[in-house]
């Protein structure tokens, strides 16, 4: 796991997939910055957008779906409406049925990273809600491997 100084030094170039999000008025809280619950919503959205667009996941009919088993976030600087957020995604680890994502949030037009979070999903069979003995669907794995960072290994 990277330390805080490594996370604070992240740049957009560290992430192979980036999605924009236009902040909304109701994303702000009473402190005039985006509420921490919105970060989790956005992280989940960029992950699922990638899975649908790049890995062939079709949530209503897929045999497997990703269940979040762990998440956390480190906040470095606020972002507020009316900013445009850039959500940057990479995979740090792929296991037999699990994947560890790293998501960074940048503000469009600003260099420094605003936050970096981690989500761990376990892909489970829809019928049993348990990991498949055969592991992750091969098409899904192939899509995730496209954004796996160099130096990280996939455990099969």
What does the model show?
The chain is of the alpha+beta class. The protein has a single domain, classed as Hotdog Thioesterase (Thiol Ester Dehydrase, Chain A). The chain is built from 3 helices and 5 strands. The longest helix is centred in the N-terminal third of the chain and has 20 residues.
Strand content: 25-35%
Number of domains: 1
Assigned CATH architecture: Roll
Quickly name the level 1 CATH class: Alpha Beta
Terminal Cα span: 20 Å
Instruction: State the major sheet.
Output: 5 strands, antiparallel
Give the ordered list of helices and strands. HEHEEEEH
Give a count of the beta strands, DSSP E runs of length 2 or more: 5
Task: Calculate Rg over CA atoms.
Answer: 16 Å
Q: What structural category do the secondary elements indicate?
A: alpha+beta
Residue windows where pLDDT falls under 50 for at least 5 positions: none
CATH names the topology as Thiol Ester Dehydrase, Chain A
| Name of the CATH homologous superfamily | Hotdog Thioesterase
What is the residue-averaged pLDDT? 92
Measured as a percent range, the helix fraction is 10-25%
Shape call: globular
């Amino acid at each position: 796991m990277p330390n805080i100084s490594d996370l604070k030094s992240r740049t957009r170039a560290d992430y192979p997939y980036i999605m924009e999000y236009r902040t909304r008025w109701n994303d702000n809280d009473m402190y005039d910055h985006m509420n921490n619950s919105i970060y989790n919503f956005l992280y989940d959205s960029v992950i699922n957008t990638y899975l649908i667009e790049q890995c062939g996941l079709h949530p209503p009919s897929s045999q497997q779906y990703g269940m979040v088993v762990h998440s956390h976030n480190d906040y470095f600087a606020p972002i507020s409406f009316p900013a445009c957020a850039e959500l940057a995604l990479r995979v740090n680890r792929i296991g037999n049925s699990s994947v560890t994502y790293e998501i960074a949030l940048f503000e469009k037009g600003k260099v420094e990273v605003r936050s970096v979070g981690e989500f761990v999903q376990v892909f489970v069979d829809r019928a049993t809600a348990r990991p498949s003995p055969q592991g992750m669907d091969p098409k899904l794995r192939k899509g995730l491997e496209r954004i796996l960072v160099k130096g990280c290994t996939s455990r099969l």
